[in-house]
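Design job #97: recover the sequence.
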């Protein structure tokens, strides 16, 4: 009995490697996208219409805009959040920062995502922590 051997068409070094196995935790790791729909001033009040997702990764441009407005004398801020689809602690940090030094903040047309975040923040503030004092949270 005779057998013949044939070499593979592609040598093993040129064959495509097997794709790596990736574990999907289910969490979205892509940064959010925040859009500033419009930005106007009325006297010393800045009015900003926000849209999209506001998270720790995307909040920097909003923070820079507000810092610039504060540097230029704006003492009031109205944020229209009706088109915000997601927000997290990054947005809370901006909300906590603005009222410093006597500046005023108003959230207009709160989206469900913004209201949910504010409700969670309020609940966290009202619940006693381990030391027996309430945790800090944003009020609006």
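Job complete. Output follows.
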């Amino acid at each position: 009995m005779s057998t013949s051997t044939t070499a593979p068409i592609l040598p093993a070094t040129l064959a495509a490697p097997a794709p790596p196995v990736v574990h999907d935790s289910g969490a979205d790791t892509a940064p959010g996208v925040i859009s500033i729909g419009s930005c106007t001033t009325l006297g010393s009040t800045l009015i900003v219409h926000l849209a999209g997702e506001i998270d720790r990764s995307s909040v920097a441009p909003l923070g820079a805009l507000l810092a610039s407005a504060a540097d230029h004398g704006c003492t009031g801020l109205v944020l229209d959040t009706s088109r915000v689809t997601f927000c997290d602690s990054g947005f809370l940090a901006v909300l906590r920062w603005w009222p410093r030094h006597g500046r005023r903040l108003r959230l207009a047309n709160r989206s469900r995502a913004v209201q949910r975040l504010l409700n969670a923040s309020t609940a966290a503030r009202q619940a006693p922590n381990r030391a027996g004092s309430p945790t800090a949270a944003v009020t609006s």
